[in-house]
Design brief:
This protein is of the alpha+beta class and 90 residues long. It is 40% helix and 16% strand. It has one domain. The protein contains three helices and four strands, in the order E-E-H-E-H-E-H. Strand 1 and strand 2 form a beta hairpin. It starts with a strand and ends with a helix. The model has no long low-confidence stretch (mean pLDDT 76).
Length: 90
């Protein structure tokens, strides 16, 4: 999603098949981030989160944010994303 003024706008959405290698995901995201330079990449915390965020930064993707899902926000974050996706224009 891209923030334009006060509105969020979809930039790109892609669902990787289960079993996709992390190296393929990182390469794909790098290509997309070159096309959408204003896009912000958000990575949810997982066991490999630190490695993925570090790799994105190493290949020059600067607008990366990692989010820690806690008991307090683990339902709120995906719900808010779903609401934004429904409201945004493609």
């Amino acid at each position: 999603m891209i923030l334009e003024g006060e509105k969020l706008k979809h930039a790109y959405l892609y669902q990787f098949p289960l079993g996709t290698r992390y190296s393929e995901v990182i390469a794909h995201v790098a290509r997309v981030s070159q096309l959408h330079s204003r896009m912000k990449l958000i990575v949810y915390q997982s066991g490999v989160r630190d490695l993925i965020v570090e790799e994105f930064q190493n290949i020059g993707i600067k607008n990366v944010e990692d989010i820690v899902l806690t008991d307090a926000n683990k339902e709120e974050v995906p719900s808010n994303l779903k609401i934004h996706m429904k409201q945004c224009a493609w």
